[in-house]
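Renewal narrative, Specific Aim 1. Our central claim is that a sequence can be written position by position from structural information alone. The example that follows is taken directly from our test logs and has not been curated for this report. It begins with the structure tokens describing the chain, in the order in which they were read.
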């Protein structure tokens, strides 16, 4: 009996410890998995729309964002442009390949390269920018560009969403471009180049995955850029009606 008593006690104690060890191992494994960053990917069409101007000009416009990565680093392909429907030609195409990292709770920094196909010679730029949520819930995206020829410019994209109901959203936007040097070959003058303001009313038909909208946009060119446009026989701005949709995959 003296021999069996310690053996039985050890067995009972071991059987009691095994579940505890197994539970601890599961908690450690779960914690480790949660600490590992998850890869995310997607595509967003912030603008996918038809525009009709007061001069009877018809345009197809897109502004897209394809991304892949984690919360710590994302690779993004940003593409935007305008297609003249009557002339069956692209008026401008802009593509950016950037890497993006968080620098604060609300803002990310990004750097990469931009390829343009404007009216005139193609252009390539280095990109450094910031994107995030400013106070009062303004979405801000600003970039600084340097071309291979040393031409510098910057742009600002600001957007504010007013939630009218759980489904109806009124979005105000402002895009502004400033050039610090002249690039006459592509019709860009020094100073404030252009602005685009917009007001769009959207409806979240399928969550935020599909939101059709209608709205108005006002475009304007300034200074030497406007002079170059007039000399080329182009307009310097005006109002446009827009119909489109925001898409998220």
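The sequence written for that structure reads:
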């Amino acid at each position: 009996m003296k021999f069996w008593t310690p053996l039985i006690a050890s067995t009972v104690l071991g059987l009691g410890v095994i579940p505890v060890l197994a539970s601890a191992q599961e908690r450690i494994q779960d914690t480790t998995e949660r600490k590992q960053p998850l890869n995310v990917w997607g595509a967003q069409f912030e603008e996918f729309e038809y525009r009709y101007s007061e001069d009877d000009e018809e345009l197809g416009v897109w502004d897209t964002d394809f991304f892949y990565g984690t919360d710590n680093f994302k690779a993004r392909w940003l593409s935007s442009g305008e297609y003249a429907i009557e002339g069956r030609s692209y008026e401008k195409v802009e593509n950016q390949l950037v890497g993006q990292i968080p620098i604060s709770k609300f803002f990310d920094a990004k750097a990469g390269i931009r390829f343009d196909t404007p009216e005139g010679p193609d252009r390539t730029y280095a990109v450094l920018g910031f994107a995030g949520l400013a106070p009062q819930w303004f979405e801000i995206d600003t970039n600084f560009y340097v071309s291979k020829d040393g031409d510098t410019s910057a742009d600002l994209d600001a957007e504010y969403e007013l939630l009218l109901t759980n489904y109806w959203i009124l979005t105000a936007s402002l895009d502004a471009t400033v050039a610090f040097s002249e690039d006459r070959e592509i019709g860009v003058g020094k100073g404030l180049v252009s602005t685009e303001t917009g007001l769009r009313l959207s409806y979240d038909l399928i969550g935020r995955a599909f939101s059709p909208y209608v709205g108005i946009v006002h475009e304007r060119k300034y200074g030497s850029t406007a002079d170059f446009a007039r000399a080329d026989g182009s307009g310097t701005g005006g109002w446009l009606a827009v119909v489109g949709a925001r898409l998220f995959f």
